[in-house]
Structures are given as C-alpha cells and as structure tokens.
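This part of the workshop introduces the protein records we will be handling. A record pairs a protein's sequence with a compact description of its fold. Comparing a sequence with its tokens is the quickest way to learn the format. To make this concrete, we reproduce a full record directly below:
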Amino acid sequence: MAEVEEQGRKPSEEFTDESEEEDSEEEPKLKYERLSNGVTEILQKDAASCMTVHDKFLALGTHFGKVFLLDIQGNVTQKFEISSVKINQISLDESGEHVGICSEDGKVQVFGLYTREGFHENFDCPIKVVALHPQFTKSNYKQFVTGGNKLLLYERNWLNRWKTSVLHEGEGIITNIQWRANLIAWANNVGVKIYDISTKQRITNVLRDNVSLRPDMYPCSLCWKDNTTLIVGWGTSIKMCVVKERNPTEMRDLPSRYVEIVSAFETEFFISGLAPLADQLVTLFFVKENSEHMDEDFRARPRLDIIQPLPESCEEISSDALTVRNFQDNECRDYRLEHSEGESLFYIISPKDIVVAKERDQDDHIDWLLEKKKYEEALMAAEISFKNIKRHDVQKIGMSYINHLVEKGDYDGAARKCQKVLGKNMELWENEVYRFKTIGQLKAISLYLPRGDLRLRPAIYEVILHEFLKTDYEGFATLIREWPGELYNNMTIVQAVLDHLKIDPTNRTLLTTLAELYTYDQRYDRALEIYLKLRHKDVYQLIHKHNLFSSIEDKIVLLMDFDTEKAVDMLLDNEDKISTDRVVEELADRPELLHVYLHKLFKRDHHKGQKYHERQIGLYAEYDRPNLLPFLRDSTHCPLEKALEICQQRSFVEETVFLLSRMGNCRRALQMIMEELADVDKAIEFAKEQDDAELWEDLISYSIDKPPFITGLLNNIGTHVDPILLIHRIKEGMEIPNLRDSLVKILQDYNLQILLREGCKKILVADSLSLLQKMHRTQMRGVRVDEENICESCHATILPSDMAKPFSVVVFHCRHMFHKECLPSSGTLPGVQFCNICSAKRRGPGSGILEMKK
C-alpha cells in the first residue's frame, strides 16, 4: 500500500507502507507522486476545495476563492481571484479553452481562457456545481448548467443573449453534475437523474440506497465510463448504469432511451470518488475513524482501490492506503478523485494535499522485481521490453543479477549468466574473470568464456589453464580439448605441462594433453610417440588426419600390438603409402601378427600377396588351422607339394585329403578318409565330388566287410551307382544295421527317378509339340517380296525391271530367295529343293516353301 508522508518528497519518488509491503509479494498496480512545486506553496496558505483535470493542464480551486491553472508538474501558469469564499466546482470543455466556475457565495463565471467572452452571474444561494457542454467552443453548443436549489440550463441564443431553463427542482441541493455528449447526469438529495438534451427528455431516476447518510457529508460520486455508461457511487454502494435505445414499438409516451443497471454491489468503505480504468474501476474510499477493519495507527487514511466489477459484487485487484497531509482531520466530502483519460492519471485531492496516481510502467515493474531480488524475472522483463524502458539498462540489470548470484555463492549460475549478460564487452569479461580469480572460482567461469568471433586476450585463457593445471588435471585436459589452440600461447602451456611431468612423468592425463598440444602445434611426430606409448585410441585418427604414414613405418609392430584389427585395416587401406613388402619386413619377427596381416590381405585380394602364399601355409598351420583349408582351396599360387608336406607333418587329414585329390591322387585321398577318418559319409561325399567309377569301386570294396559302411552306402549310393552292384557283393548272413530301411530308401529313390523321368518326358513332348506348332504357323505365313530383295545366288534384284515379262522366284522358309534358274537341280529327293546357304551352314534341310511365277 502506498503512503504519502506529510513532509515534502521528490515527485518521482515512490512511497510505500513498508510494514505491509514486506509481507506482500504482490506487485502494486499504481505508483504515487505528490503534486508539488506551486501546489505546495498554495496549500501551505490555502486549502484545495476542488480540481478539474484536462490533458494539457490542471485547474485548482481553493477555500479562499482562488482558481489556479497549473501545468502537469504543479507549476502555476495562471491565477484568478474569483471570490472570497470556497470555490465549489470548476468545469472545462473538451478543448480546454473555456472554464466554468461556481462558488459558495452564489457566483457563477463562464469565460474563455484565450478570449474575452464570458458569463458572470450572482445568485442568492450557493451554487454547488457547474458543467459546460463538452463542445462549448463551438457556437451552436454554447450551453452550461448550474446546480444549487435548481438545475438551470443556460443557452446563448442568436441575439447573443443567455436563455435560462429550469431542468429540475424541488428535491434538495444538487451536489454533482457530469455532462457527456448529449447526456447530463446530476445528483440531489433523492437520487441521480439523467437528462437527454437532444430530445429534451429526462431518462431515469436512480434512487439513493442508504437514506440515513447525510447527502452533504457523503456526497454522490458520478463518472462517465463512455458515452452511454454512467458509474454512480454513493455511500457504500456502486451502480453501473447503461443508457440504451428503446424499441420504437415500446415508446408510446416513454422517453426514447432508458437506463439498465448492469452491475450493483456494496463496498466495505465510503466512496469519495470513482474513475474508470479499462474494464476496471479506480475507487477512492474514505475510512471512518471507528472502523473495525483498520489498526489504530492507520485509521481514517483514504484508500485507493482497483476493483473488477461483477454483476452483483466486485473483485479487489489492488488496495493502497494513502497517508495524505492532515488526513486525520478530513471527512468523506473533503476528498475528490479526478482522472485524465488520455494518460490514465488519477488525482487524489484533499484540502492540504494532492497526490497523483499513475499506472506502473515497465521501469516500475523492473524496480519492484529488483527490490524483491527477483533478478531473473527483472532481466527477462528488460530484455523483452528493452525498447520501452527508459531508466534501466539490460546489461546493468544483468550485472546486478551476477553480483547477487556471487553473493549467494551460486558461482556456476553467475558464470552462466556472464555469457548472456556480458555479450561482446571484452572489458567486462576480463573484469569478471579477475573477480572469479579473486574468489577462487575460475573453474566456474572457464566453461562460459567466449571462444568464437569474440576472444579475450591470450593471458586471460592462460591464467585459467594454469589454475586448472595446479588443481585439476582432468579439467585442464577438458579445456585443452574444447578450446581452440589459437586462444592461448601454445608453447607457454606446453612448457607448463612439461614442468608438471617432471614431477609426475607417468601421468596419463598430462601425457595425453601434451600430445594434443603438440598436435595443435603441428609437431605430429612427438604427438604420435606419446599416443603410441599410451596406446591411445586417437593414434589412428591422428595418422589419417595428418598423413603420418611415413612416420609409422618403423612403428608397425607397436600399432598392431595396440589394436591389431585397426592397424591391419589402416595398412591395407593405405598400401600406396606403406607397401606390403615393407609391412612384411617389419613383421618378420612377429609371425602371429604377420599372419593376421597376410590373412586379411588374402581376403581382400587372392592375388596381391601371392609371393607370400608359401609362407602363409606354415602361418595358417601354426596360428589359424580353421582357415587353412579355405586358403588352400582359394589360392591358385600355393605350392601343393610344400602344402602337402606341412599337412602330412602335422597330420592334418582333411587338408591332406584335399591336397591329394587336387594333385590327382584321389584313391589315396579316399583311402585316408576311410582309414584315418573312418567317415563313410565323407567318403561318399568325396566320391560324389570326383564322380569316378573306380573310386566307387574302391569305396564298395573297402566297405563290403564293414556293416556300418554298407548301411551308409545303401542310403546314399542309389542316385550315383546301381545299388545291385553293392547288394550282390554282400556276404550271405552278414548283419547289416537298418538294412530294411536302407532297401526301402533305395526303392523310394528308384521310384523317384522313374517319376522324374516320366515327368521330364511329358514336359519334353509338350514343349516339342508347342514348338512344332509354332514353327508350322511361322512357315505358313506369307513372305513379302519387293524390289529391295536380291537373289542369294546371282545377287541381282529378285524382281525383274520389266514386270510384264514372265519370271519365276523361289523363296525358302529361311527367307533366302533365288531366281529359279539360279538354283541347282533337285537332289536325291525329286521335287524337293533345299536352300544352298542353309545347307552349307548345316542348319538343316530348308525346303522351298513358295514359288512365284508370272
């Protein structure tokens, strides 16, 4: 709640009741200033009785009968001595060029501020109110009304004389008049009336609710929200009245307009003034001294509330208690609320003080947020409204936020905000770095230092790197990886790392970081040595990126010891840079690594390493027997005798069998399968592969006295050898396991063969018939013969130039054409002729199909 103290204050100073603000987190809606300058001097000697507000100036009336024109800051621009007693009302037209004044002694004056025209009249009773037509400046709207015991309308006629009309009388003193467009609203002891000056009809009468209150002590407050909405406040009740057009069918003898009360509700305190604020209301309340709702110290202070009207109640938006001068001595009638529609300014007038309330702008909002230490919200508000704020600077707010976070100990949050707040201001950045160094929090700000287009001095980055090097090797390594090498002096940091390595020479983190620094400095050989020593995963990336293949020729063993797969792939991918011969030479003392390299080389290309195939036989036999047989099968450059010797020495039966078969010694190979492997299935498979009758004979001879072998042969031989040959050679009385099943399988295989043959025969006959029919259709077609065709024998045009002469042409099914006289005589078959060309090429007997004669 805002409080205006008795002593003078600066106009721009906000004054709040601290006892209530400390407990409230809700931001006030209005801010307050005391209207000072000339007003202060006036009210020291006199007392305010009324005031009217125009967008351009203020008009203040006093108890001593004076009227002062003031600028918006309260400076006196004009002074009028109207009377010796209290000025009751001042009225201005919309242009601000004419003023109407009435006083307690019955004087009424209406005159132009910039012209000499005017109206002066003295009445025999006090005139409480006067109101000019809003368009009084225009000649056809020279009208005003006064209110005392009667409501009088003054109009200037065409003779330039004032004509007086009584609009209303007989209901006591008229205490308030408000004129808007063509509607005049006034209040007397009974209620509120509205008069339509265009139709000269009184529209309505809104009765006073609480008749127990004295009208002179609790006067009615009237305020037009717009041209048709009147707000009435009286005692503790507020009504919102809307003037509406009546349906022509309902008029009869009724006025053309009527009033509908759209909202009516009671308030907690007595109303001293009303003013609209968008769809809300600003209300000035008088709080009686005996109110139970206020503490003793704050009794009778006027309150300025913003409320949201509802149909039968209201919602309080904000409430401020104002400590105006001499508030203890004031009554409800001593307060007035005037407002300036253009700027949403609200003036609280009391006898000894005038306070201006205005809506808080974005600067005020930021002030409140900063006061409440809501720096994050203040910074966000300033960034959003940076074009509209006048007293604040986004960067200064940001710096205040950073200072607040540092004081709170949230160093990481403060450092994070630096990135946003400091922007591209190098001086501020450097100041913050040194501040964080002073408080021992360089690590916090290191993550957010600029490293793009904006860069600080190298010394700044070096200070942070040295700090990390002293306390956090891992953090140091992270910064080296993340920061571009151009940010700092690389040699300085390298030397610092070397100094630390003297103390801890095996520290892996420092060595890795040193290698990265050497890489930034393009000293790749040193970086490579460190990576290989550490067996670091980035060694291959370094070699590829900087083409260091010439540097690794003598380090191939180290690379393969570290990661054999990656090393071999790299060497094979870059054969043009490191030859196979060079790799083999380097790996000569490490046969297990040599085998991996040559094996992958063979997989990529069976011919590239052909001169090493002989060596590979021993390598496969020693280190990778499962891949020996595939190698022997795929290699065409492998010496078979050497391979056979090695396989026989190592008793590799399968490999020996393959080599023997490849060298043509199939019988010996089959013998090894049967004798050493004793695997009838393998023997049968081998015999099938070779498809040699002698091998089958050897296999049967070897198996004839071995029942398990006979069973295997019976199960598999049916499709390759006549099973009868085997069955006839089985000794009578020999027990053969699963003989019945084997014989059944032989019969099934035989039946299957018969079915297959019959099926194939049917398909062959059907295809032959189809092709024969197709050929017959083709041969039955006509053949076009024209001038472009030639005789295949004499090569002359097939048709004579003179078609009138008789001629004879023979056309064969093969489309070759001959003059009949060019064909040789018929062969052994009389009447049948054959194409000489097709017969010579042995295409089959093509007989003539067409003979043309004419």
Summary: The first helix runs from residue 18 to 21. Residues 176 and 187 are 5 Å apart (CA to CA). The mean pLDDT is 81.
